[in-house]
Design a protein that fits this description.
alpha/beta, 8 helices, Rossmann fold, globular
């Protein structure tokens, strides 16, 4: 929706989601609580730019995200990147969201990242332009805050200049800050789930039952 004065920040959660699992869901849920976000907009990538081509279609990954997030009023799903049929990059995605008929220029947007993704940020397309378009929120393990000394030099400088200790300050500007939040660690990965499914193993309790049923019904991930 277009911006309205005084709106709380909106979380933006992009990814391949191949498949979506409980680790993704917990990150989004805990980000919403920790950062007092108005909601989380999930954006499945149509053609991920920094990883191998997924084994399932973009439409199937989109449907799995819809199934996984159904019933949570704070979650919404944006299908535009899937429908665009082009490589997905975060900066153009955020530029689209900043249009007047989407979120507008003044709504605080918060791009959600895991610590590993944040560490690799300098490899991203036009990564420094992200801060003109959104705040960044980085999830980390409880008790293990982000160590700026372990970051690439250019990112460490950026982190030092933009770090904000109080999530409440995200409402004061539409973009430009970095915040962190601790999240429950779940040893779940999409890679492991795909391998389990390909070998005939059980992926139950690693992802929602609705997603697992969809995978079985459509014969997804037969080989890995």
């Amino acid at each position: 929706m277009p911006e309205q004065p005084g709106e709380r920040p909106l979380g933006i959660f992009g990814g391949t989601f191949d498949p979506v699992h409980f680790g993704h869901l917990r990150l989004a849920e805990e980000a919403a609580d920790s950062l007092d976000l108005a909601g989380i907009r999930w954006i499945p990538a149509g053609q991920p730019a920094l990883r191998e081509v997924p084994r399932v279609t973009a439409g199937q990954r989109l449907e799995m995200v819809r199934l996984a997030t159904a019933g949570n009023p704070r979650f919404s799903v944006d299908a535009a990147e899937v429908e665009a049929a082009r490589p997905s990059y975060s900066v153009p995605t955020l530029e689209r969201l900043r249009q007047a008929d989407a979120c507008g220029r003044q709504r605080p947007l918060v791009l959600l990242l895991g610590a590993d993704a944040f560490n690799g940020l300098p490899k991203w397309h036009r990564w420094q332009a992200l801060f003109d378009l959104a705040h960044l929120a980085v999830a980390h393990r409880p008790g293990f805050a982000i160590d700026a000394g372990q970051l690439p030099t250019s990112l460490a400088r950026c982190y030092h200049d933009r770090f904000c200790a109080s999530p409440a300050l995200l409402t004061e500007s539409p973009a430009g800050r970095i915040v962190t939040f601790a999240m429950t660690q779940l040893a779940i990965s999409a890679t492991r789930i795909r391998a389990l499914l390909a070998s005939g193993g059980s992926a139950r309790y690693l992802l929602p039952d609705t997603v697992l049923t969809y995978i079985r019904q459509h014969g997804l991930y037969p080989e890995y």
